[in-house]
Structure formats: structure tokens, C-alpha cells
What does this fold into?
Amino acid sequence: MRDDDELLTIGEVAKLDGTSAKALRYYDAHGILTPFETDPRTGYRYYSPDQMLEMDVIRLCLDAGVPLQSLESFRGPDGSLDWRALMETGRDRVAREAARLRTLETSLDDYLGEVTRKARTPEDGVVCSDLPPTWMVGKPWPYYGGPFMLKPYLRAMTALRAAVREAGLPRLLRRGIIVDCREGKAYAYQQFEASDTSRSTDGRSPDTPDAPVTGTADATDTTDFSFDPSLTVFHPTGGPAEGRVIERESLSACFDEALAMVARNDPTEWPHATVCEIWGSHTAEGSIRVRYTRHRCDAGVVGR
It folds into this structure.
């Protein structure tokens, strides 16, 4: 080593970069970052200034979630590290994590929106409004016309929640029973937000029952959500609707009354209806509430 060399000792690199000397030795042993020069007599490792940039890339990729143990796999046939492949892997991990966080943000925004919606609900619980389009995934509800079955309903909700999560889509707050009045069929449903980046599109403009506060209406119409074939996708076009709050002593009693009201609707006037749970609906008197809404538009079955 010459005195005027600009090479850095392992200790200097560790101090400048904030990386431990132990980590640098690991990188060397596994061919991740080989010292520019190693003193054959002392075994001391020396690094060139430009290798500090390589350290930056390694740190960035590790922060992005690339496993330390996998870095060695990016070595090419000549033993050098494939920096491009490493950085692309790091960037892809960041993109996936960003998408996951955006999904969580959308779900939280919708839950926060429910606080606002409840604050705007009239005292008599009746709401007449124009609702925007929405997306829902449904599971056939074979108990329509009979007593409401709480345990099967909760199991259906668990399955639908898992289906939305596995599809990588934001799960919105609304869930309950949707009835296609013209077909006389009912489904347990979970509302979600369609994402253009998570599915293929066919270029058609969107259409959506209960109003989400997020930008669902901007999604393009498609059924390629990677849901199980046993599930049904709904995309009602929105429009005029009439809703009211039903309050009874139990969730089952609420659904029983609401679904009985659905059965009395004229399907030519009200093609579909929804009954959804209301978050935080327990009253001081011990009763519970659901929201019953009947819609002028079709249920919007777009895929099974």
C-alpha cells in the first residue's frame, strides 16, 4: 500500500457508510462486495471510493426488503454482482409494498368515511340519494326467504374477506346481503374497490349499491379479479336509491325485517336491494342497526 493511495480501510468504510466491519467481511466472503485490494501480507481489506456507491445500492436494496441471504444469488458467471438485476428486484419489492400500503389506505379511508356518513344520517334514518357505482363480490345465500342464519353469514363474510385480500384489492366497509329482486336470488356480499393495476381491463367506462367514498367509479368494467369461480361479481350502475335504518334487538332480527321488506318490493320498480351492517351501530339500549337500501338500477351481475 502506498501512503498516497486513496483506498479506504474496512474501518473507514464502516464508519463512513454506517455498515459494520462484520457485514463488510460477509459481503467479501460471499462475493457480494469484494475489496478493491487485499494486502497479501496482513490480509487487510481496502476499498476504492467508488465502492461507496456500491454500498449505497446494497443498503437501498436491503432496505427495500431484498433478503441479505439472497444477494449472493445475483452473482454472474464471472463472479461479479449483477447490479441491474439486484436493483430491479429491489424496485419490484418497493412497488409491491407501496401497492399493499395503498390498499390499506383505501380501506382505512372508507372506514373513516363511515363516521362522516353516520353523522349526516337524518334522525328518521331515511335517506334518498343518487349513489355512485360500486364493486362487490358475492357468495350465494341459500337462506333467502327463511330465517336469517347468523353463523353461516359470518362464515360467508370470512370467505369473502379472504377472497378480496387474496385478489390484492382494497376491502371497503360495506358488507351484508344483496338481493337480485328480478331473479329472486340473494348473496352475501363484500364491497371492494377495483384497481386498474391489479387486473386486466377491456376499456369500457365504469358503472357501481351503497356509496363508497373512494374512487371506485373510475375503474374500468371487467370481471378478471382472480376470484374463485363459485363467487359472483356485482357492478351496479348506481343512481336513485332509497334507504332507511332498521333497529332491532339483534343483528338477526334486523336482517329478518329488512329482507322481509325486500320481498315486498316491486322488482320492476326496485330491481335490487341491499342490507348492510352499520359499523358501531350498538345503541345504549342494547339494540343494533342495519341499513336497508332499495335501488332503481339492476344488481349488475358481471361475472361468476
Observations:
- Residues 197-222 have pLDDT under 50 and may be disordered.
- The two ends are 72 Å apart (CA to CA).
- The helical segments are 10-17, 21-29, 51-63, 83-120, 150-166, 251-263.
- The first strand starts at residue 8 and ends at 9.
